Amino acid sequence: MLMRECFPFYASDGFECKLERVRAAHGASPLGPVVLVHGAGVRSKIFEPPVEMTLVRYLAEAGYDVWLENWRASIDLPPSQWTLDQAAVYDHPAAVRKIIDVTGASTIKAVIHCQGSTSFMLSAAAGLLPQVDVIVSNAVSLHPIIPNVSKFKIICCTPLLGCLTPDLNPQWAIQSNTYVQKALVGLVRLTHHECDNDVCKFTSFTYGTGFPVLWRHENLNEATHEWIRHEFASVPISFFKQMSRSVRAGQLMGVSHLNTLPKHIAAQPAKTQARMVFITGDKNVCFLPESQMRTYLFFNEQRRNFHSFHLLAGYGHLDVFIGQRAAVDVFPIILDELNRPTH
C-alpha cells in the first residue's frame, strides 16, 4: 500500500499547479524527497502505468519520499500556450520550494522526462534550483537532436499548423470536432498502420517520425498500450515553435525576455552543483541518443568524472518508464544513481 497526499501550489506567475506526495504505507522515507517531472501533453500519472511495478512504487518502497509534479504542461491543468521558459522560471522552482517547505529537507533529488527534463534542466542550469543535488534526466535535456525527417517536419510544418490550430491533441483520434481535427486524424490513419490504437498512432504523428515514436511496441504490455489512449492530450503550438528554434540551433533556445534565463543556455557554464545522470534508450527516435550525450559532455567538461551517462539497450523514449520490464532493466540504474554520494 502507498499513502498519497495532494498539495496544490502556485507557480511564480500565479498559474496553479499541483504536487502529489506518495510514500510507503509505513510512512518512513529515510532517503528523503525525490520529485518526478513528466513531459508535454501528459500528466504525472505517466509514471504509473498498469504494470506490476511502477517507478513511483519502486522508489517509495526503496525509502524515498516521492513527489509527482504536475506543471503547466499537465493535461490535468487548464490548457495554455506555455513555453519551456515559463516552466523553468515559474513552475519548477516553486514546486521545489513547496517540497522543501513541507518536508523540511535541505536538498531534494529529481527524475525528469522529455519536456519536463528540458524545462527543469533550463531552470537548474540558470541557477534557479540550488536545492536539487541529483538530477536523473531521460531522453533529452539541453541539446535536442532529432532525425532529419523529423527536423524537416517540425521546421516546415509548425508555421502551417500554427495558422490552422492552437494545439495538437491525440484525443482527436477519439473525438474530433473541426474540419482541421478530422483532416489530421484522417492523415494519421492514412500514414500509420503500426497498430490499432489511434491515440498511439497520433502521438507518433505529434512527436516525430516513426512507427511508433515514443516507445517500442514490444516493450509494452497490452494493458499499457490500451491505457495510453487516455494519457495523451493537448500540446500547444507555442511549444513546437520553441522546439523548432532549438532544433535548428542544436541547443535549447529561450523565447521569452525573462532576465533570469540566458537566450543560449548552453553557451556558458551551468550555474548548478547538482550531479547529472543522463539516460536514454538506444532505440529512441523521438530525440536521438546523441541529444543526451551532448549534454553529458557539456557538463563533463565543467566537472570531469562526476556525472553519468547510460544508454539503455532495446528501449526507446517513454518505455524507459512504462515498459513491462523497466523495473528490471531501468529502475535499478535510476535507484543506484539517486543513492550515490554527491561529494
UniProtKB/TrEMBL annotation:
Alphabetic keyword roster: FAD, Flavoprotein, Oxidoreductase
Cited InterPro entries: AB_hydrolase_fold, Cholesterol_Oxidase
Entry GO MF terms: oxidoreductase activity
Domain of life: Bacteria
Regions crossing the membrane: none
Cofactor or coenzyme needed: FAD
PANTHER family: CHOLESTEROL OXIDASE (PTHR47470), FAD-DEPENDENT OXIDOREDUCTASE 2 FAD BINDING DOMAIN-CONTAINING PROTEIN (PTHR47470:SF1)
UniProt record similarity statement: Belongs to the GMC oxidoreductase family.
Protein name as annotated: AB hydrolase-1 domain-containing protein
Organism of derivation: Ephemeroptericola cinctiostellae
